[in-house]
Amino acid sequence: LDPQWRCLVPVTTFCEWTDTPDPVTGKKSRRWFRLKNDAPFMFAGIWREWEGVRGTKSKPVEGKHLLYAFVTTDANEVVGAIHAKAMPVILTRDKWMGWLRAPADVAKMMVKPLDDDEMDAPTEAPS
Q1: Which DSSP string corresponds to the chain?
Q2: pLDDT tens-place string over residues 14-28
Q3: Given CB 3.0 to 4.6 Å as the disulfide criterion, which of 15, 20, 47, 87 pairs with 79?
């Protein structure tokens, strides 16, 4: 979690699949989440350069690659009601520069669920 390997992933909404299928259709569905104030937010991200082979067996791509991921944490109650396993680490504007610049021990403390009262209840599709 050293600062040089952290990044921000811009987001306005995100979805999670329901943990259980719909009893009528037998299929899981997506539920969308956003901030109550509709403000854009960021996922806490990490990145690294990696050298090796990526791609399919029929079309391998050898060389240097940039790998990105967003960091996840335990689900808060809003997300957990739909998808109990985990949720992305959501950073509001006041946390962006801290994520990018703070020492690793401070950044680790930022890896936590967003407060429930900052999120809207999920919807079936973004509006």
Answers
A1: --GGGEEEEEES-EEEE-SS--TTT----EEEE-BTT---EEEEEEEEEEEEEEE-SSSEEEEEEEEEEE-EE---HHHHTT--S-EE-EE-GGGHHHHHHS-HHHHHHT-SPPPGGGBPPPBSS--
A2: 999 999 898 999 999
A3: 87
